[in-house]
Amino acid sequence: MWVAGKQFYFGNRFRNMGFLIAVEGIDGAGKTTIAKHIKEILEDFGFRAEVLKEPGDSVYGKMIKNSESRFPPEKELELFILDRIEDVNKNILPKVNAGICVIMDRYYYSNVAYQGALGIDPEEILRKNEEIAPKPDLTILLDVSPDIALKRIQKRQKITPFEEAEYLERVRELYLSIKSEEIRVVDAGQPLDDVKSEVYQLVMELISSRGSFFEMAMRK
């Protein structure tokens, strides 16, 4: 039963397991760029690493991605959770348990912030997600003002209903209100090289915390 597996996963992080790293932030914060950067850092040290993006490619994830307008908040949250359950069981846990480091380009804190900004209780969103998904070893929260984020978005695509300034400000506030020991906030409004430098240090701290695993990777 998967629940038993989940309990095993949470309570017994063997040193040959991969890291689970989440990259979070409002649209335009630079998550995809930084997720790829983390993958490169880990691979430079001999780790196997993959980037996964949410929503995923399940039928539920495709419903979210292919919809021309947003679903009602409760329905949207339900679809995200159903998509995540499938992603956890088919992709995230098997890869991490096989020693592959998984970098999530968005994870469940996105639900806390985005659906929370639509009026759903953030604590309830967090509770529902923590029941079905493993907690990251490290969450990098890329913090940037909506003004900067929207300027970046406009350079590459049309603004969507997820990307309106007032809404993004509420989302940003909720992101910053989340209290969890593995979250590290990085100023994503600074030059990209500076953002990458801060992220590099955070990844090094994570690697160092898994002593023998780090030594094993260095010997490869």
TrEMBL record:
Its EC number is 2.7.4.9. ATP binds at residues 25-32. Belongs to the thymidylate kinase family. One of its GO terms (biological process) is dTTP biosynthetic process. InterPro entries: P-loop_NTPase, Thymidylate_kin-like_dom, Thymidylate_kin_CS, Thymidylate_kinase. Keywords: ATP-binding, Kinase, Nucleotide biosynthesis, Nucleotide-binding, Transferase. Transmembrane segments: none annotated. It comes from Geoglobus acetivorans. The keyword Kinase applies. This is Probable thymidylate kinase. The keyword Endoplasmic reticulum does not apply. One of its GO terms (cellular component) is cytoplasm. It catalyses: dTMP + ATP = dTDP + ADP. Residues 23-199 form the Thymidylate kinase-like domain.
